[in-house]
Structure formats: C-alpha cells, structure tokens
Design goal:
heterodimer, A: alpha+beta, Rieske Iron-sulfur Protein, 3-stranded antiparallel sheet, B: 50% helix, DUF2487 (chain B), transport (chain A), disulfide bond (chain A), 2Fe-2S (chain A)
Chain lengths: 167, 154
C-alpha cells in the first residue's frame, strides 16, 4: 500500500482546492451582477447616448442658421416623431446651438427676421428679442436667455443633446 | 397652446397674451369623398400643429370645427359664427380659420376674420424629408399673413 505522503496532492489538499474553486465561482456569480449594477451608469454614458446628428461642421457660418432635426419620443402609449429646430453658428472654434423657443411663452423665434432689429433673434408673437448669443434684450417680454443645446462634434458632424437654460 | 390640460393651464394664466384662436375647418363625408376628407384632415392637422408650434405663445389651437359635406354653406357658416361669437365674448381678439375645403371661399366675406384656404397637398405619397420641406415652406408663407392680421387689427 502506498502511504499518503507519496501522493503529489494529498486528500486534504485536493478537497481544499476544489472547495476554494467552487466557492470562488459561486462568490463571483453573486458579486459580478452586483458590481455590474453599481457601475451601470458609467457603462451607459460610454454609449452614443441621446445625441442626434444635426448638421455638418462645414455647413456652419458665423451667422446663425436654422437646422431641423427629429427623433422618436415615447409618450405614455404612443411613439411619435418629434421635430425640433436649432439655430447654430460657429465663432472661432466654438459652436453654439440655441433653442428657438422664446423664453416668454414658447413661440418660435427667428434670426434677423425683423428689418427694424437686424442681427437679433425676433419673436413674432409679442416682439421679444435676443442677442446673437441668446441673451434676452431688456424691455422686451422674455425674462431669460434662449436655452442652449449641448453640442458634441464627431468626425465633422455636429450632434446635439438636450437644451438647457443658460442661467 | 394646444387644447390639452397642460397648455390650457398656461392659457388661463397668460390669457392677456394669448389673444388668437386657430380653428381648423374639416368636412366629413362617408360617401365617395371619404378619401379626400381623410386627406384634408391629415393635411390641415399637420399645418395647424406646425402653426401652433410657431405661434405657441399667442395662439390657441381649438378642436376642429367639423361639418357634413352635405350641410348647406349658409347653415354651417351660421354655426361657425356662433363659435366665433362665443370666443370673442370670452376675450379672443383674433380668429384664424384654416381649411382645405374651397367651399368656404364663398362665405369668406361674411366671416369677418382671416380665412386661410390651402390647396390640398397629397402628403401621403411623400417621404419624411420631402414632406417636412413642403410643410415648412407652406408655414413660411403663412407667417407674414398672420403677422399682418395682428398688425391690422390693432
């Protein structure tokens, strides 16, 4: 009979190894999904996200231009195609995209649309006016600047995210 | 503003600014003209939604005024004028009617407000991009018309 000492792996060692191995797998099976949940927001942000391709950088000028874009929106029980507009211009290296929604009551403003007020955004409803950078002009109804879109440029294409208040 | 609770809340609050009603006029028939009736409904809905988006802060898009195609033009005009009287009584200074039904041209003079008649454009055969271009081109033509009405009435 061969004594236990001649074995390369003793019975006790074999049991320890297998138990550690199986236990390790079980622990990993429990911990990994939890870790995944914990870092999930980080992984999400890495994806393309909610940005929409709107224009080519080469189309931009120093004058704000109107760009329409649309995306799908799920609202309770139906999906609808939403069209939005942005006034985009480039000044130096900076690309600025402004929301056309008047901060007074939500009409759509237009650039350089009134002969009396050149180089301003003009609201046809109640005569609200804004500077090129979206700042509201005092004495007109709006009380805050036009909202600004989140801008991202990738491979010469301008992507827009959500419009956020400037103040 | 649209005819939904959310918008109506701001309408009540900002009433003095929202002095214009946009009323779509839609003919209904179940006979041979049913396809045309549906096309008008679709087209006018798109145009009035777009106009509402453009003039949200001054315009209230009310539920469409519907009538049977067979209804006599004088009778439906009378009914429409009742709507108008009610809206004016409640402080609506301007009313804009929008339709694709050319019958209304006959009653235009006696309506007393702005009637916008748009020839029906068959949007159903166009792809998304082209459709958007056509509609935004039409809207561009309508904007000065409406601003002119505001200027004239004051």
């Amino acid at each position: 009979m061969v004594s236990e000492k001649d074995h390369n792996v003793s019975r006790r060692q074999f049991l320890t190894y297998t138990l550690t191995g199986v236990g390790g797998f079980m622990a990993a099976g429990m911990i990994l999904p939890m870790a995944r949940f914990a870092i999930d927001p980080v992984l999400q942000a890495g994806a393309a996200g909610d940005m929409t391709a709107v224009a080519d950088v080469s189309d931009l000028t120093e004058q704000p231009q109107r760009f329409d874009f649309s995306y799908e929106q799920k609202d309770a029980w139906y999906t609808s195609e939403v069209t939005e507009t942005a006034w985009i211009y480039q000044e130096g290296d900076e690309i600025v995209a402004l929301s056309p929604t008047c901060t007074h009551l939500g009409c759509t403003v237009n650039w350089d649309a009134n002969e009396d007020y050149p180089d301003q955004f003009f609201c046809p409803c109640h005569g609200g006016r804004f500077e090129k950078d979206g700042k509201n002009i005092e004495g007109t109804p709006p009380t805050e600047p036009l909202h600004k879109y989140e801008v991202e440029v990738q491979d010469g294409t301008v992507y827009l995210g959500k419009a956020e208040p400037q103040i | 503003m649209k005819w939904i609770t959310n918008d109506i809340a701001s309408f009540i609050q900002e009433r003095k600014y929202i002095d214009t009603a946009l009323v779509p006029l839609l003919p209904v028939t179940f006979g041979s003209g049913v396809r045309q009736s549906a096309a008008m409904n679709e087209f006018i809905s798109i145009i009035s939604d777009e106009l509402e988006r453009q003039f949200k802060g001054r315009m209230l898009l009310v539920p469409p005024f519907t009538y049977l195609e067979t209804e006599d033009i004088h009778q439906r005009k009378e009914r429409l004028l009742e709507w108008a009287a009610e809206m004016k009584k409640e402080g609506t200074a301007h009313i804009i009617y929008i339709t694709a039904d050319s019958e209304w041209k006959k009653a235009e003079q006696s309506l007393g407000d702005l009637l916008v008649w748009m020839p029906l454009v068959p949007l159903e055969n166009m792809d998304m991009e082209y459709k958007r271009q056509v509609v935004s081109e039409q809207i561009k033509q309508l904007i000065p018309l409406i601003m002119e009405k505001w200027k004239m009435d004051t």
